[in-house]
Design brief:
Rossmann fold; elongated; 9 helices
């Protein structure tokens, strides 16, 4: 299969960046071209051999989706047709909402848009054959009349092993991993839980690709230990040694932190959103947070298990490849 992918960032710990990294890893052995606006150095920017990475400003892609004015007419009627003659023919084009619209410069049998937790405008949806939902509840992001397919990204190991962060950690702790760039990430619920929970919190956040302010009352809270810009190995260490992972998000496109927690943490609490809108995610050691943010701490801490007891095939490489191949086959003949 030949695949063209467009995204905002390659590298970084955000949801779209994690999804891009995992999709590229899952497609190892296929012919994959990736076009990004920015590339960060680090473990999540490493791609398999044979994957070609370009930027949206490169000669072969610059201005591909521009349509307005004289420049747009030249790009669409002269430049892009020449580019299509030189670019390979792709079986499928995957575009994240953060990515440049580069497919007019190429030919693709099937065009899929990954919303990454953001609502898709009807005029944007019309450029694609379907919206590729990362979780069942993403249907609320799909405009009326647009076609959708379910395509959860595969979840790989954060790192081969864990590495202790260079901060003092509590002996027992609850873990949460999120950037408070929007109230929907649940910072208000964290503030309430930090005062009420039976254990202190370790809170991981990163400003590698997103800028935000942490409320002063949480920045200096005596029951919150902050870990900033942790490496994947350090995050794995924290998951594996926490008493439980707690997701405070009110909504998610997928929810990478909770998906990682399913792989490593003994207990996981979440609302039924993102990956947890898929019934298959409710595995041993998982606990539901109510709509108003209530958490049964006794149930959560008593219900932990070894992550090995969980069946996570739904988040595996094979499941992703099978779903992508089925979507391409179905949409190609429409």
């Amino acid at each position: 299969m030949r695949v063209l992918i467009s995204s905002g960032w390659l590298g970084g710990a955000g949801g779209a960046e994690r999804a891009l990294y995992s999709i590229v890893q899952a497609l190892q052995g296929e012919e994959v071209d990736v076009v990004v606006r920015h590339r960060l150095e680090g473990p999540w920017s490493v791609v398999p051999a044979g994957v070609r990475v370009s930027t949206a400003d490169d000669r072969g892609w610059w201005g591909s989706g521009h349509r307005s004015g004289f420049k747009g007419r030249v790009l669409q009627t002269v430049v892009n047709p020449v580019r299509r003659a030189f670019h390979p023919h792709y079986d499928v084009y995957l575009q994240f909402l953060s990515g440049a619209h580069v497919v007019p410069a190429a030919t693709a049998d099937v065009r899929l848009l990954i919303p990454s937790g953001n609502a898709v405008e009807p005029d944007v949806a019309q450029r694609f054959d379907a919206i590729a939902m990362q979780a069942p509840d993403n249907i609320q992001l799909v405009p009326k009349g647009a076609r959708s397919v379910l395509l959860p990204p595969p979840v790989f190991d954060l790192a081969p092993s864990g590495e202790r962060p260079r901060v003092d950690l509590p002996d027992r702790y609850l873990l949460t991993v999120f950037n408070p760039y929007d109230p929907i990430k649940g910072v208000t619920d964290l503030a309430r839980a930090a005062d009420a929970a039976p254990l202190p919190f370790v809170w991981c956040h990163s400003q590698a690709t997103t800028r935000f302010d942490i409320p002063p009352e949480l920045l200096h809270h005596p029951r919150i230990t902050h870990v900033t810009d942790a490496s994947p190995a350090e995050i794995r260490y924290l998951y594996e040694r926490c008493a439980a992972y707690v997701s405070f998000s009110l909504t998610e496109g997928f929810g990478w932190s909770t998906a990682d927690a399913l792989r490593y943490a003994p207990a996981v609490a979440s609302r039924p959103i993102g990956v947890f809108s898929n019934q298959a995610a409710w595995q041993p050691g998982t606990s539901r947070i109510t709509d108003d943010g209530e958490i049964s701490w006794d149930e959560l801490l008593a219900g932990g298990c070894s992550p090995d007891e969980r069946d996570l095939d739904v988040l595996g490489r094979t499941e992703f490849r099978d779903r992508l191949a089925a979507a391409v086959e179905e949409l190609r003949v429409q």
